[in-house]
Amino acid sequence: MKMLAAGLFAGLSVLAGAAFAADTPAPPKEKKVCRSVAVTGSIMSRSICHTKAEWAQIDATNAQSAENALNQRRGSSDTH
Fold first, then answer.
1. pLDDT tens-digit profile of 26-42?
2. Which pTM value belongs to this model?
3. In a domain, 55, yes or no
4. Residue 38 lies in domain
5. In sequence order, what are the residues at sequence separation of 6 or more whose Cβ sits closer than 8 angstroms to the Cβ of residue 49?
6. Domain total in the chain
């Protein structure tokens, strides 16, 4: 009898957890934004998809890399 009650209680706990999970809405998925990117050595471009936040981070990283490259170039041209 105790085993039956324990099993019933465990089953109800799982059902209650599933019902609670169904009631809480999942956060909406962010929409992906796709960009065409030229691939070196190919005549075909490739589509790459990321969220707006990911693209913002990628763009910021690329801008910083470009700035660093320009600064290195400016620094090396001063010595020649």
1. 788 889 999 999 999 99
2. 0.56
3. yes
4. 31-80
5. 32, 33, 34, 35
6. 1
